[in-house]
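Running log. JK asked me to keep both predictions on one page so they can be read side by side. First protein, sequence followed by its tokens:
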Amino acid sequence: MSTQLQTTVPQGPKGSLLGGNLMAYRKDPLGFLTDLQKNYGGVAKIRFGPQTMYVIYDPELLKELLITKQEHFIKLKAFQEARLFVGDGVATSTGEKHKRVRRLIQPHFTKAHIQGYAKQMADIVERELDTWQPGSSRMLTDDISDITFAIIARTLFSLEGKEHSRSIREPYELINRMCAERMRSLVSVPLFVSTAKNRAYKSALAALDYAVYEIINQRKSNPETGKGDLLSVLMEARNDRGEGMTDRELRDELMIMFIAGHETSANALAWAFSYIMRNPVVERKLYEEWDRVLQGAAPTEVTYMQLTYTQNVLWEALRLRSPSFFTGRSAIRDVEIGPIKLKKGQSVLFSPYAIHHNPTYFPSPLSFRPERFENDLLKRIPQYAFIPFGAGPRGCIGNHFAMLEMVIALCMIGQRYRLRLTPGHPPIEMEPLMTLRPKNGIEVVVETRT
């Protein structure tokens, strides 16, 4: 399926005199982003306060932005707010620093290396499932977050126990909401101003810092622990002057791995279960595949490749509810992207969530249809029409890791238990914060699968 590059001058909604389109975005971020695509096609022009920006939906323009002209851009300036807590790690740093750290981390995320994590991932899921009781009600979103956090902690940093999960996830919850609110404000109150919200924000940030620095200090005290894991690699790394990473630099890398590494997978899994529970045909097909391929066993690096329908269910969940729903780039010099003429400092945005709802590439885009990914769909649509993990040099470094852990968790939970929404459960709504998550979580009743 081909795509025709948009060449017309970008247009967009007028907006208000002072805020431009910011209030419309704040009121309904996802509706605003999808309406832009419906009304203006491959690229739209918007204004947030005094800043004129462009939102790209055309796959070929995305290719220019993320691949062919990527050296003209840095991570979106508007997302600098997130750096207050995640720091200057691999996902937020720029230039040579980003390249150096990515080179250090990349070997731990190759397909060959990740396959060695499968047994550890399965052990963690099984340990969590052993605490579940048939007939009990559970907050599924919390349980899945515990699983994905424990997987990151064990496989990459040789850490055990839920105390690390709680000490990082709990303060992050507050920061996540406040950071999203500050990013969508025309004017944010500087953090040095002592307001109740700022004090709460800084207190949560201090708790996050304490938890991560404690992990670093414990490893320094016992350097042989986890020899060869990602944390040891980062701590032993030296630049061309023979200098190692500072504690702050280590903190930043650990923070982004813990936060981004567990939350996006947890959200995607939660969304997948939300659809499975409402689609008995999909559930039946999953059972048939698991019974045929796994016969009650946990997935391995070998059987993973045979679980094609399970993978398609996850792809479809990622399409409908892309955890990273909105991001972008800022130009570091004057540059043209198709019909867009950007000045240095101007920003280009794109929304995987909205792009994945384009009916040109995904007919009946609101329907949950894992079968759409059969027969090599991704080879038949433009390469950048489906970007759940981003693309290009700044694409998600852990995409293969995430797919393996999600397949393992989905299969092991689904083989052992049948999940149903608790009676009277409210509709599951989307909550777009730093990522796209189920609002107020998903509570389920656990039934033994018969």
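And the second, directly underneath as requested:
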Amino acid sequence: MKLIFIILFTFFSLFPLLTDAQGHRIQIKINGLKNSNVLLGYYLGDKKYILDSAKTNQEGIFDFKGEKVLEQGLYILILQNKTFLDFPVTEDQDFAMLTDSAFLVMSLKIKGSKENAAFSDFQKNMTYSQKLSAGLRQRLMNNKSNSDSSRILNDKLQAIKKDLDKFNAKIIRENPNTFTAKFIKATQEIEVPEPPRDAKGNITDSLFQYLYYKNHYFDNIDFTDERLMRSPFLQSKIDIFFNKVAIQIPDSILKEIDALIARAGKNQKMQRFLTAGLLNFYERNKYMGMENVIVGIADAYYFSGKASWADTTFLRKLKDRVEKMRPNLMGKEGPDLQRLETNTGEWASLSMMKTDAIILVFWEPNCNHCQKVMPKLHQLYTKYKEKGLSVFAFYTQHDTVEWKKFIEQHDLTDWINVYDRHNLTNFRNLYDVFTTPTIYILDKKRTIIARKIDVEAIDKFLMHYFEEFKK
């Protein structure tokens, strides 16, 4: 113990902390790490970014320093062997750390930052608890058939969790309003109460626990504190909510988005993080109907002027994208396509289709994917036409020779085949057609009930649709 104290004293005495210092200086010694490259990074959303680099000397000593004050949040020290150490950077940006390359977390000592010391205690206790729990879970797996052993092991796991919660609560209590306290609290799941029961013990509200969990999901996160943006869990927490917890209906999702952004209060950095993040999230989302969410976010925050950070170039591009989505959103009446010529030389329009379900497909015979999709689509048409399905197949080009040849070769003559000889319909913008095939499904009133649906999903969709239609 005396030797350890001397080593710590010697290292820390080499680096006196500055008073009234501007910028940042993080001094580090890692025992066992000689002449090695080290990276300093930070978290933002679901990504890590490299901020600086350094090289250790023979004693494993190095530092990161600069005149700029760092944005507060969780940072990451990445060693050459890909091991890493998380630590907070908050108001105290002149501090020192001493650790060992073999035990980065458990050997960590801090000078000059009370908050880093508290975060280190949290990490050490978490690491120790996880190690104990992992051993107990393995023993539990090996003793599944022994009920007594399983009960004892489960009790021990619960005791570890209870001790961990108690330890974390102590850190939060002793470090109020710090990043560390808010970080720990934000990683904790909310406690869901038991559902209400009647006098006989029967549950009277089967949705109670789900709705409580959904409505209180974010209660432990302080969205007015922008430091939490720079942590590894926040984006994941948001993604899980909108993927698995929120009701997957556009109107419901938009209400949840409004409620979440409102939690940021007047913090514009957090507002931007949430708004831009959710817009990108739904741009990547492949579920049908989520274009309604993109348009809803754009209207409520970007086009209304609330997103003051958005420049004119971005707004122009977003508006162009949204205006191509707006006419063909799920639940809207599909725009009519008139005065189209058929493969037999007659005239047709989309509004003439009066069946219970209409597949509107935009395609071309020289598209490799179309060549595979169109025969599959015809099989589905044959299967469901007696139940009320029709197909309006819109050829997007003008070379009628190849078009008519494909129709004849694949026996596609029993549905409506059309093309826009004089480019009068503006179909590309009305139905957002910039790749082929593009497939919509409309109901009898021409309401869009499926948008840009894959051919593989149509069979199941139509089966459910016609089952519901009969009711």
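Observation for JK regarding the second prediction: The two ends are 79 Å apart (CA to CA).
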